[in-house]
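Summary for the steering committee. The consortium agreed at its last meeting that each partner would contribute one worked example illustrating the joint modelling workflow. Our contribution is presented below. We chose a case with several input lines so that the handling of multiple components could be demonstrated. No manual editing was applied between input and output; the record is shown as generated.
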Amino acid sequence: DIVMTQSPDSLAVSLGERATINCKSSQSVLHISNNKNSLAWYQQKPRQPPKLLIYWASTRESGVPDRFSGAGSGTDFTLTISSLQAEDVAVYYCQQYFSAPYTFGQGTKLEMK
Amino acid sequence: EVQLLESGGDLVQPGGSLRLSCAASGFTFTSYAMNWVRQAPGKGLEWVSGISGSGGSTYYADSVKGRFTISRDNFKNTLSLQMNSLRADDTAVYYCAKAGGYYYDSSGYHSTEYFQRWGQGTLVTVSS
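What follows is the complete predicted structure of the assembly.
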């Protein structure tokens, strides 16, 4: 199984500042066939289901604000929120869909400083 | 608009059975793989099971293999999860999730198992 490890476990950022969350996979999730990384990011607010933010490591889902961006390749990935807004307070998860079982990171709790 | 509505969650005793359902609408159901993802109280996300658009291929996490069975009815646009031999550690909110679609390469079509849309979830509690 591919193990996904996020860092940090929690993060406090001031309004308008940049937030960066890291995700590392235990093996590469890069598909040679299409040169894309099978890595997604989700946002989960309290008492709500997760919401897809990013897929293929850097493709923003429709309707997601452009302050959210994803980067990385192979085994190391980042989710960046360029200017934190109050509504971005949530738990963020990365997930690999390179191979079953499709595994998630443990989550990163993002709070306002 | 894509809608996924789960039902069937309940309180059940250890060793018991339960069947979850997910009614899908707003998209061409047969064109997408579907999945179940669960979240234990206060914990993270765990993928449970997936099924291809045709229903011909199914996948399970080791933690549920042999106890849970995923299925779909492409005429009724419904996804199901039959859960047997339930244990306390199966207690969780169970989400139905629509996969992202398919991509094509030299070896054919492949489902992209990121979870593009989620239902609101249904709570399963296993306790005596």
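The two ends of chain A are 36 Å apart (CA to CA). Residues 18 and 82 of chain A are 5 Å apart (CA to CA).
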